[in-house]
Amino acid sequence: MTMRQLVKTLRLPTLGIATLALILVPGCGETAGPVIDGSGDARVEDVVDNRVEWDGETIELSGEVEQIIAPNAFVMGEINDVDLGGEPKVLIVDVAATQGLELEQNVRVIGEVQSFVAEEVERDYDVKWDGDIRKTLEVEYEGKPAVIAKSTLAIE
């Protein structure tokens, strides 16, 4: 039975179609993925502290370049944080690597959160690191949350 036939059979008003769809269609009306403050923007702390919740989600994340590991890999912290050594930071793998970055530069990335595995990132995104950089990434970030950025833009 189609939705129209069901509405006619139940003699629901037109407005009832939308309501019925929300009830009968699984997932309809639900928000996909986590939402922070209703803005759709994530914070570095959110990604680091709730990595299971964010895994596989495409997010928009703003932060400050804390460390540049390679032209296509850097560490992001919160904008204007006072680094006392305990602030959360997240690895960003910029698969496009379209612009050079500077330390303490504010950037906005759009990408997918995933648990970092150097071998998988190299294979899946055609990223290559020399032995020393790959070793550093494996020791410091293997199994931790990372954002595979498809877009990285400097912001003011």
Give a written overview of the molecule.
The chain has 156 residues and is an alpha/beta fold. It is 31% helix and 29% strand. It is built from six helices and six strands. It has a five-stranded mixed β-barrel with strand order 2-3-4-6-5. A hairpin with a 2-residue loop joins strand 2 (58-70) and strand 3 (73-77). The protein is globular. The relative contact order is 0.17.
Write a brief structural summary:
With 156 residues, this protein is an alpha/beta fold. The protein has 6 helices and 6 strands; from the N terminus they run H-H-E-H-H-E-E-E-E-H-H-E. The termini are far apart.
Short descriptors:
disordered N terminus; alpha/beta; 6 helices; 6 strands; 156 residues
